[in-house]
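User: Round two. Same drill as before: sequence, then structure, for each protein.

Assistant: Same drill it is. First protein:
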Amino acid sequence: MTTLENLYYGNIAPHEYEVVRGSEYDITAKLVIRHEQDLSATLTEQQNAILQKIKDNHTELMNLGERDAFRRGFSLAVKLMIEAMSSEKTLRALFRPVSRERIGGARTRPRPTKPTQAVCRGLWAQIQLWLNTLHSCFLVVF
């Protein structure tokens, strides 16, 4: 399966990752848990219920933030790809002709032929259309 298919079918979950033992995240998470347990031990049952609601709301808020950050990051990445690929110089670098002209036995710089230029322009138009469509889809989805 392709990466896009794996993402679509849920085999890739960008928001899930392994926490490395001893990492800054691991240490901070353990501190939060310890402080929560200390606080919870001093609260009444009603206060613990309120604390649980606060934790649930905070989790939802964090999920919304992660989703928005993913959407904004993906949009930025697509914009960067479009910008990087939109220059004539980039196209020439990607689609250099294989053959080289010889003048007086010395090789010269390759010069793209008219068909090569036309193919590059057509291919580039399709790439731009695909990237813009992909970017628009993610703006609608997220």
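Second protein:
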Amino acid sequence: MVNFRSGGFKLSLIVTANCELRIGLTGFWFIDQASKYEPPLELEDFLGKKQLPLCFGFGSMTMPNPEYLTHYIVEALKKTRQGGIILSGWGKVGRTLLKI
């Protein structure tokens, strides 16, 4: 059985004649449209720095107190003087920040 939740892939690469397939696609990637994309200057500046940003990804993890985790991520980034990207997923990390 092949069970994918999301992704950009060529289905023929994974499907065999006797393969039970369960797929839930969340979207599509349009390569031809990607060449027309112009990112905002702020994003180019952010990604173009000498030190690349850290990425914090939480996928389908849920958190009882996402505000606390967000607070500690932001504080760690400040202390280390690094940029960061928070991919919150279902846990809502990065969507709210505690006022401490």
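Residues 1-6 have pLDDT under 50 and may be disordered.

User: Perfect.
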